User: Fold this.
Amino acid sequence: MTTVTVACPFQSSVCVQTEDRALLKNLRLKYGQYLLDGDNNKAEFRLCEQENGKYKAIGDGKTIEVDSSLNYISAFLTRTRTFSPKILALHGAAVAYGGNAYLFLAPTTGGKTTLTAWLTERGADYITDDCILINRETLEVYPCTTPIHLRTGGVTVLREQNALPEGLEHLDAPGFERWVFTPKNRVSGPVPLGKIYFLSRTDQNRHVPLSSNDAFIRLLKSPITEYPVTPSHLQIMSRLTTTAPCELQYRDMTFPEEVLRNKSHA
Assistant:
């Protein structure tokens, strides 16, 4: 039985015990440097594999038989994780240009992962492609540099643009197929927040300013986990609107790159 711990920054961790070598390989492809060997003694939950592919979730009080171990572990992490109280966690991607962090907020399949891969291949520093970690006091953005997971469509787009990253690895698990790589140019510490963009793929390239009220409403829908609507939560969302969030409509990925380069040299 092999023991590993998924320990992503500023959030609760999970210990997994399994004899499935394919699962261990896929966990490394999914979580990269945040999959630690052994039990780090800080895991809040434990998943222990039993016979017939069943997992006993210690701390959740259940034993469940699953069709896809990787999907179950990922869903378990999403369902049970908690974040440090000093962190606001948003669902989105982020890169750094010119020493500032630029955030891309979009729903799943909204194109943010493909765009992040493109930008990191074009010189941006990688921060995250899924979970944005913002310091509530300083508004600095912390790295969460899990590997980038491209869908087949994203691979096709990047190949057509001659921007396909080298060394892609194939993660093929039941219900979850991705092409995986970790950018070499990654940030290693907190980065000042530059600007927030709400992404949308359209038939034109436009940079659309948002009113403070519109930005505030959109930001309220952007956390990666559910937060109680407290005065402090509303306050941090209000502070984020002072960065003048915009809607970034783009037809081709050269346009977001151009916008970020202009911002980073402003």
Q: What stands out?
A: The helical segments are 21-31, 69-80, 112-121, 152-160, 212-220, 231-241, 254-264. The first strand starts at residue 2 and ends at 6. Residues 64 and 186 are 37 Å apart (CA to CA). Residues 2-80 form one domain.
